[in-house]
Design brief:
Length: about 260
């Protein structure tokens, strides 16, 4: 190994506080990371449906659902039937939360106010098969005359193909989950509060575009690009190693070819 490459590797290993910070961040326990739910869209929808449902035993009542809807409607540039004032005044304790009804990620139904809210959640995937207008049409036909709101939730808040939907980003969800966990600590059980904090932490680490892990990784790469490119160039070829191992096993076994 030439001198410059050796120096690059030494700097990466010995003079790298960002790497120590990244390792500490990754070592910190998080329940959602532990169960492998970080990039699983279905698990995100499950947990959000849990928080949105006033009937669940989390101690939030309808507060989280009301806050999400109120924030989305206030930020919308489109004219929709329901207003922020309506949502601030309405009692949503009877809100019904459905998962995967007609393939809709989350559907909120409020019979008392004739309100239907479609939430389409995308973590890594994109839109397909004209699903947004199709979901709108299905709900509109099933609940004629109801006021409808569509929310399109993505990590970066990208614009939906159907302008009737309001774009939301996971940064907003992160902020609202933390706000609820801290502001309603007296009514939340310790386990629910911990779960909400872990969820917000996981979003901050992995899902938000400016996540802590992404920022650290970018800083480390910019500072130690030569060393990292060298490491990547000489990374183990697991497929080749497995092939050699199998060949050695076969040759050492009488009767096997």
């Amino acid at each position: 190994m030439n001198k410059s490459n050796r120096q690059a590797l030494e700097a990466f290993l010995l003079d790298n506080p960002e790497l120590e910070q990244l390792e500490a961040l990754l070592d910190e326990f998080n329940i959602f990371e532990a169960i492998g739910a970080v990039r699983q869209e279905v698990r995100h929808s499950d947990f959000l449906a849990f928080l949105l449902n006033p009937g669940e035993r989390h101690g939030l009542g309808a507060a989280f659902a009301q806050k999400v809807l109120l924030t989305a409607v206030r930020a919308s540039e489109n004219e929709i039937g329901v207003t922020a004032v309506d949502l601030a005044l309405w009692e949503l304790d009877g809100l019904q939360v459905l998962r995967e009804w007609q393939n809709i990620d989350i559907l909120l139904l409020d019979e008392s106010h004739h309100l239907a809210v479609i939430i389409e959640n995308k973590v890594d995937s994109g839109e397909h098969s004209g699903q947004l207008p199709r979901y709108w049409r299905i709900v509109q036909q099933r609940y004629p005359g109801w006021q409808m709101v569509g929310l399109f939730l993505t990590p970066d808040g990208r614009e939906p193909s159907d302008e009737r939907y309001i774009p939301l980003d996971y940064g907003l969800i992160h902020d609202l989950v933390l706000e609820m966990a801290e502001g309603r600590a007296s009514t939340l059980g310790a386990d629910v509060q911990t779960l909400m904090r872990h969820y917000a932490q996981m979003l901050r680490r992995h899902i938000m575009p400016d996540s802590d892990i992404a920022q650290l990784a970018q800083r480390i790469y910019k500072k130690h690009q030569r060393a990292l490119d060298l490491i990547f160039e000489h990374r183990p070829d697991l497929q080749s190693e497995l092939r050699d191992y199998l060949i050695a096993m076969i040759e050492a076994t009488p009767g096997m070819i």
